[in-house]
Write a structure and sequence with these properties.
394 residues; alpha/beta; Rossmann fold; 7-stranded parallel sheet; 6-stranded parallel sheet; 15 helices; 13 strands; globular
């Protein structure tokens, strides 16, 4: 019997932290853990905030890093001018913990972004270990079109980005366009050591969904990176106010409750709720009549694969894409027999009405959904890891 490879995964965004971004990492490494022995090192999350800490069953060993309260207070400062991100403050605590564990037993290690600052730990480990380093990049880093440009910080970002690409063995991106964007900024051709690892779906079941009699429109996720929410709220509130059988819920992060207090008060017919744990998140998706995905209108929207999209697909529910750009998200939603409209309250209202008339007859694209299976994605990644480890051992 072939011996399993032993891998270490470093990430700053992982359950029990409740967000589509953390679930993306969980689904991939959970599927990969059936073929590799994996250990994940991640921030310790207080159970007082996330009570369902142990709800996810997994084969992965976990190492938790305690982050001091003063660092957490620093992280709560909004729009802190740090690059690649404010989680740079985690670095010394993770480094200290890595020095305490036996890293020599691993055959490979992986750094996962979000957030990009986790890759700086990869630079540290690569000096210490002569094993392959796989780095995953979820979003643009240098010259990120949705970040404010600060000259000196951009210079630092580019320096760090190039340094990391000079040391990685395999680079992973969720989209071809994002890979090409990074490659255009690099001194070397990173295409040769880069692969596409799409966001994936944990479990696929064609069982009939348990839809309740009431109609519920739901949105999940963050409002950032140029995504404009107000027009969607106008359209949905008009729909809810004109029909007592229609309900709407927006599951958003903590930042939304701070930054959009005025909108929450203005659109009282819509429920604004906090993120759910993974199991309840999937359950709510399955019970939804129509799911909303708000996209970026600008051309650079094709660099972003929204984390929640695969979870939306997994629910087999109709999805309304909002945005004018021809993004990857839009293309997938249309292939899945969903709809798309511009970010205009009248167009959104009309599109929702049209979808509601056919909601009971909706049929998803099962073959498309199956292509995002985490097992398929993990097996393909496993082949790359095995080849890289074997070549490195020669």
């Amino acid at each position: 019997m072939k011996k399993k490879l032993n891998g270490l995964v470093i990430t700053y965004c992982y359950p029990p932290y409740e967000s589509p971004e953390s679930f993306v990492t969980y689904k991939l490494v959970d599927a990969l853990s059936y073929y590799c022995d994996l250990t994940i090192i991640k921030p310790r999350i207080e159970q007082t905030k996330y009570r369902n800490k142990n709800i996810l069953k997994t084969n992965i060993k976990e190492i938790e890093v305690t982050i001091p309260s003063y660092i957490k207070k620093l992280l709560s400062i909004k729009r802190m001018p740090l690059r690649p991100d404010r989680f740079l403050f985690y670095y010394p605590f993770f480094k200290k913990r890595l020095l305490q564990i036996d890293t020599k037993k691993y055959d490979f290690f992986m750094t996962r972004s979000q957030f990009h600052s986790s890759h700086l730990l990869g630079l540290f480990l690569k000096k210490k270990l002569r094993i392959p380093w796989l780095a995953h990049f979820s979003d643009p880093w240098f010259n990120n079109p949705v970040q404010k440009k600060i000259f000196i910080l951009e210079k630092i970002s580019l320096f760090l980005q190039k340094k990391i690409f000079s040391k990685t063995d395999i680079n992973m991106f969720p989209l071809k366009e994002l890979k090409e964007y990074f490659n255009s900024q690099s001194d070397e051709d990173i295409e040769k050591k880069s692969i596409i690892v799409p966001h994936s779906i944990s479990k696929i079941s064609k069982k009939k969904r348990n839809l309740k009699k009431k109609i519920t429109i739901r949105f999940f996720g963050k409002i950032y990176a140029g995504r404009k929410v107000k027009n969607t709220l106008i359209a949905i509130s008009n729909l809810v106010n004109s029909n007592k059988n229609i309900h709407a819920e927006f599951y958003v992060d903590d930042d939304f409750f701070i930054n959009y207090e005025e909108l929450i008060e203005s659109f009282s017919s819509i429920k604004f709720l906090s993120y759910l744990n993974y199991s309840n998140y999937l359950k709510k998706l399955n019970e939804t009549s129509i799911l909303i995905l708000i996209d970026i209108d600008e051309a650079y929207g094709n660099l972003f694969f929204q984390s929640k999209l695969v979870d939306y697909l997994q629910s087999y529910r109709p999805i309304l894409h909002i945005g004018k750009s021809l993004t990857y998200n839009k293309n997938i939603i249309l292939k899945n027999n969903g709809m798309s409209c511009t970010n205009d309250p009248v167009e959104i209202y009309k599109s929702l009405l049209a979808m509601l008339k056919k909601v009971d007859k909706f049929k998803p694209n099962y073959n498309l959904i199956e292509s995002f299976s985490s097992d398929k994605v993990a097996l393909k990644l496993l082949k790359t890891i095995e080849n890289t480890v074997n070549n490195d051992a020669k």
